[in-house]
Write a structure and sequence with these properties.
By secondary structure, the chain is α+β, with helices and mostly antiparallel strands. 18% of the residues lie in helices and 38% in strands.
Length: 304
């Protein structure tokens, strides 16, 4: 008979996405943490698996004491996060996730320790809990799992999703997640029982160039802006959301408005334009080097 704890082949439940927050008494609301999804197997020891079933335990030695937070074999679903000034920092975590040298890992674990934020319990003491409603699993999580040793339990609120979203937005956080109170845990499946609502920033940017597809049509738009000194700076590339009509407009503009000298050396095989066309990009937040995280093109502006 299959056993979730010993088989260690759980693929986490996935989320759908909606654009606008909502209030609903049948949902709970949690912060969407900017981290790496992880399944934690806690027993005599700790085993951490990412959503591709790769064991990542050795990368995060500071979490080796999480087994002290439970008395029986337990499987938790949660997020690995690094908190800097109280806010999740994805890039600090990403650097950790790529480390392989044990000495560097130990140093990083002391400087920027990773935490495991648990928001669901899938298994406890030989029992598969996936067929229990979410609110019942949440109660078991609070009762059977103690915090400490790098493990925290995700808090949630009820009903007031819109106000909670606005709070997340005001704090420059990634967004919120809404979950149906009576929803079951569907291993490896994407359902509307869990939905994420992301906080997105928008910015008006100049189209400085593009990289073409096989048919010569603009594909990746290279975007920039003028800094306080009047120097053109790169904001990054975007391809999601660019319509056929806009590609045609950009291509028509390019016929008479190309420049030979590249604006940004890092992009190869690009067609560079006079920075006159303006459009709006949506993105999660800026990266460490001033780029865009998860950018989506909103559209050209004819008023700028």
């Amino acid at each position: 008979m299959a056993d979730l704890f010993h088989d260690k082949n759980i693929s986490p439940m996935l989320l759908n996405e909606v654009k606008e927050p909502f209030d609903d008494k049948d949902y709970i609301y949690e912060l969407k943490l900017d981290g790496i999804r992880c399944i934690a197997y806690l027993g005599k020891g700790v085993e951490l698996q990412n959503k591709r079933f790769k064991e990542v335990t050795a990368i995060y030695p500071e979490l080796s004491g999480m087994s002290n937070c439970v008395k029986k074999n337990t499987v938790l679903d949660g997020e690995l996060v690094v908190l800097l000034d109280g806010t999740p920092d994805f890039y600090a975590l990403q650097k950790r996730s790529l480390m392989i040298d044990a000495f560097r890992i130990r140093l990083a674990a002391k400087k920027n320790p990773v935490q495991f934020a648990a928001y669901d319990i899938i298994y406890y003491d030989g029992k598969d809990l996936t067929d229990k409603p979410l609110v019942e699993r949440k109660a078991i999580l609070q009762e059977k799992v103690s915090e400490g040793n790098g493990l925290s339990i995700s808090r949630y609120i009820e009903e007031k999703g819109i106000a909670f979203f606005e709070l997340a937005k005001a704090q420059d956080l990634e967004g919120i997640v809404a979950k149906k109170k009576d929803g079951l845990y569907h291993i490896g499946k994407r359902t509307s029982d869990w939905v994420k609502i992301k906080v997105m920033q928008d910015e008006d940017l100049l189209i400085c160039g593009f990289q073409s597809d096989e048919d010569g049509m603009p594909k990746d738009l290279i975007l920039g802006y003028y800094d306080e000194q009047g120097k053109l700076q790169c904001r990054g590339k975007v391809y999601l959301g660019v319509s056929k009509e806009e590609r045609a407009i950009i291509l028509k503009f390019a016929k008479k408005n190309t420049v030979k000298r590249p604006w940004f050396e890092k992009y190869k095989n690009a067609i560079w334009l006079k920075p006159e066309l303006v459009g709006t990009a949506l993105y999660m937040h800026k990266t460490e080097n001033g780029g865009m995280r998860q950018p989506v093109w909103k559209g050209l502006r004819d008023d700028k």
